[in-house]
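Researcher: Last one for today. Full complex below.
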Amino acid sequence: MLGEGIIQGLLETARNFFGSYVDKDRLTTVQYPEERRPLPEATRNFPFLLYDGPDPDSGLRCVSCQICEKECPPRCIHIEKSKDKKPDFVGKQQFYPAVFNIDVAVCMSCQICVEVCPFDAIRMDTAFELSTTDRFGGLLYTKRELAKSNEYYREIHPTEAAETDERRAKELADTKAKAAAAAAAAAAKAAQATNPAAAPESATQASKNGAAAPPSANGASAAAKTDPAKPESKVEQ
Amino acid sequence: MTTAASVDQVFVTLKDWLVFHTPAGFQALVSILLTIIPIIVIFPALFAVTTVLERKGLGRIQNRYGPNRVGPFGVFQPLADAVKSLTKEDIVPRAADHVVHYLAPLVLVAASFLAYAVLPMGRNMVAVNLDAGVLFFFAIGAGTELAVFMAGWSSRNKYSLLGAMRAIAQMISYEIPLILSSVAVIMMAGTLSTARIVEQQARTTAGIAHWYAFTPWGLAGFILFMIAATAETNRSPFDLPEGESEIIAGYFIEYSGFKFALFFLAEYLEMFAVSGLGITLFLGGWSSPVSLLAWIPSWIWFFSKLLVMILGFIWIRGTLPRLRMDQLMNFAWKFMLPMSLIVIFSAGVWRFLPHAVAGSAAIGLVIRWLVCALIVIGPYVLLARTLEYGRRIEKRTYRYAE
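Model: Here's the assembly. Have a good evening.
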């Protein structure tokens, strides 16, 4: 009958109207500033710099290799390398960024900087309420604003952070083992040198070869030896 | 004068008192101003209330909250909207016809306001008691069509022109059933004066008022009138001239800021005016349906009826999807027009059937009711079957898409 569907439709909307006052489950709207949904773990928007320990200046993982700066498609990263060096987490002397700026107005959140970083120094953040009254200076984040602790990283991306921490712990252990082996070899060499006291040139030659050879011949030792080799080891993992 | 009657006439007495205390030379002017200013204040205020009611109501119909940020439960939303529309830039297209483009919203709002002149909003509360009140109302209503076409044409925009063309086609098509369904009332009342039509409906028999909506032809006429009124005011489901999803905003696409707000205001003013006319013609205007409730002031009756009509409009808007152009025209010419002619016929039968059968007015009323209802319902069923013939609505199957 003509008009029957209209009556049915009117009843349905009336049911919705009164139902929304009675049944709170009908209202799916999240009242955003007061109510918040937890972010999914895969959330990402803009990069930040990781540091270990309590101090963002000394603990910053970035060694100013500038790979991210070169890889960044919209070129939103600006790095100036330091003149001096300071030790990284395994104790190796490294440069550090004197200036590290990211213009988040330019950043397109592609995560390529994170993919290419050999030092696990840059990661994607989840903070999204970044509005500011100054659209130039306010959106240009400096090294100090970008530096965030590893604890924060564990909080926002637990799975990723655990994986990174595990790899870094292994790397540190390998380096220590290698250092210990090298020390042992050096001690043995020194003992050998004191006993025969004969050929110093051949002894140093032997210690050089021996330092690389004894510890486990896996990829990690090769990766730990030279920095540029590290991205490859990451790819394998 | 009893208390109820003096409360009922409070605005009339107040106006008379104010006019009486002005100098003799200004009395006519003050009387006119005191008639016009309340209309110009109250109906835009009602517009503000309606916008927030509509947004809240539509929200709830769609299981949302609706506006709830400005003030408690979002009641001050109209203020925020007003500030926004007043502070927005007024952009006029370079190719537009500037004069006509400027005049269109003004003409539209003026025409919408003029329609209120003949609406009786309470006992003795009609701005101008014209003998041809209903005719005046429809004549002024045609002025809005002119304004809509001015807006669409002068903007020099494809979409606005399309919207204006659609609006003209729709308004002219639906003006016919709108007027024909009120012709039945005019026939029965024997007058075109809105105030007299209401007075006739305010009479009571056995405590029940003689509203025309209480008769079978009046009820059918009222439904037809309201459908045609929805189309006349471009409200959903007849909002093709605006059609946000097809032609963006139709005839007022090139308007921004306060002019846009004026179009919006005019649309709502038209809706109130035509609802007011529907109330006047079919729902007894300011009269109460039963004499038991006659102590409630007449203006409260009018405005509460108006509010119910507005809620009905909102409900319809939240329920029905927009018609297609051919559906719109088919509906107007193949359904609305024959049905309104049948309503006129039914009204004539109602008038000329004997009012008392076997000496009893009650039996006569029942017989008249049944005969007139049959005259309306029979053709309705036949028309509905004809229109639906060969148009089975089934689940659509896709040959290639799945």
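The two ends of chain B are 77 Å apart (CA to CA). Residues 353-390 of chain B form one domain.
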